[in-house]
Amino acid sequence: MKKTKRDMKKLIKYSAATFCVMAALAIEGKVQAQQSDALLDKLVEKGLLTVKEAQQLREESDKDFTKALSAKTGMPDWVSSVTWKGDLRLRYDQNRGAGDTDQARTRYRFRFRYGAEAVIADDFAVGFRFASGGTGDPISTNQSLNDNADKKALTLDLAYASWTPINNKSLQFALIGGKMENPFNRSDLKFSDSIFDSDYTPEGIAAVLGWNLSNQHQLTLGGGLFILDENSGASEDEPYLIVYKAQLNSKWNETVSSTIGAGGYGLNNRGGFSGTGGLDKNESGGQVISQSGTGYSPIIVDASLTYTLESFPLYNAPFPITVAGEFIKNPQAAAGQDTGSSVGITFGKSGKKGLWDIGYRYKSLQADSVWEDVNDSDFGSYLATAYKTGTGNRGHIFQLQYNISDAVNLSAKYYLTERISADNGLDSHRVQLDMIWKF
By Cβ atoms counted within 10 A, which residue in 42, 186, 351, 403 is the most buried? Predict the structure, then answer.
């Protein structure tokens, strides 16, 4: 078949762009690669390349550069595949109650994280990350500014290896072991913060399977065995979590997308903790972990629906509106203490320069609906004059975010909450103002 003039023009511009990028890399090396990225962005902006074509060129040029560098220096391929990334968050955090005896508290805090991942081969990777906050708290890496500017601890937050033996258009399968990013925080397999705090980095082994059922639907399955403690006593009763979830992610058309998920976890051998280290970081539910106490095996269902407008005032991209909700039931807990739920709506989506979002969410967690030592450490209310986070709380959460640039985000969050058992009205307030730099 003869090529059309349009095909020939496309071939010529693609070949010319390829030559420009490859020549830039050959002449100046990796520093020049950054300039070639800028060149590709300009070609996309001018309509000479599509975004997909530009990405393909980046991948090809990166691959050739890696080969050339390895051949010239004698270093193994994985050395040039190491990627470094980190973030710094500065936070103003204040909570206060309605009563004169409530102990209002204001803290100035930071969170610093920095780490790397090396792709050892096509299907193996190893990574680590350091974080602020010190030891002894599995659900926070915040560090308060205090104690006359004394030196702050930096601890190991991640140390993991992953193996991805299957990775094609239809099926992706990965195994992760060590101290890992929580696989149930990824967008296609996500539990809300009612289940896991975003800073929780579990230890053990996990498996994730992604199955592309069609161009519109992807089913993601996840399972994890998370080790919680080591018991040095005579009995072999180390506590652990078995976590599981299935989530169907659908993009019905350019306007409508949705998720629906179901899963849960089981806290096993809960009486086998060798001490209190890492426990009771959340304590408003008053939970006591023992073999004779309440068990925790909540069942969770969740769903979201997103409608995307072509445009919206003061927003320079397609504008998503997302409604989401969840329901939680712990069959091992007593009636009146066993359920949790949340529902919310978000307008927009921050993350890129000039983009913003504004959201509202109502959340209620009865005292034994979930195990509170791994869930959100910010959502709480006043109990006995002190602000306590964990379960046994309900109330409203408002959030506004704006990206000054791709790497700098501003966030404001306000909690208006109460104790479920006291039912004294919405008497607890918390304000968090954040500025986050990613690098």
Answer: 403
DSSP 312: B
Q: Which residues on adjacent β-strands are paired with residue 309?
A: 319
Reported as a single tens digit per residue, the pLDDT across 17-61 is 544 544 444 444 444 555 567 766 766 776 666 766 667 666 666
- The predicted-structure confidence for 155-197, as pLDDT tens digits, reads as follows 999 999 999 999 999 999 999 999 999 999 999 999 999 999 9
* Mean pLDDT of the region 69-74: 58
Cβ proximity of 134 and 155 under 8 Å: yes
Superfamily of the domain at 82-438: Porin (2.40.160.10)
What phi and psi values does residue 385 have, to the nearest 5 degrees?
70, -5
Taken in order 143, 144, 145, 146, the sign of the CA dihedral is negative
Tokens standing for residue 367: 């005292």
- Residue 377 makes CB contacts below 8 A (sequence gap 6+) with 139, 140, 197, 199, 281, 282, 389, 390
What value does the mean pLDDT take over residues 398-416? 98
> Is 162 in a helix, a strand, or coil?
strand
Exposed, middle or buried by CB within 10 Å (0-12, 13-18, 19+), for 247? buried
> For 340, which DSSP code?
E
What pLDDT score does 6 carry?
54
Domain edges within the chain: 5-73, 82-438
Strands 171-179 and 143-144: unpaired
Q: How many Cβ atoms sit within 10 Å of the Cβ of residue 320?
A: 18
Q: Shortest CA distance to 212 belongs to which of 221, 200, 223, 222?
A: 221
Q: Residue 250: how many CB atoms within 10 A of its CB? A: 16
- Could you give the count of Cα atoms lying within 13 Å of 247 in the half-sphere of its Cβ? 28
Do 197 and 376 meet the contact criterion of CB atoms below 8 Å apart?
Answer: yes
The DSSP secondary-structure symbol of 195 reads: T
Cβ pair 33, 62 in contact under 8 A: yes
Q: Is 259 exposed, middle or buried (0-12, 13-18, 19+ CB in 10 A)?
A: buried
Is the backbone of residue 314 left (phi > 0), alpha (psi -120 to 50) or beta? Answer: left
- Work out the burial of residue 254: count CB atoms within 10 Å of its CB; fewer than 13 is exposed, 13-18 middle, 19 or more buried: exposed
C-alpha span between 25 and 19 (Å, rounded): 10
| DSSP state at residue 334 | P
Are 395 and 418 spatial neighbours (Cβ–Cβ below 8 Å)? yes
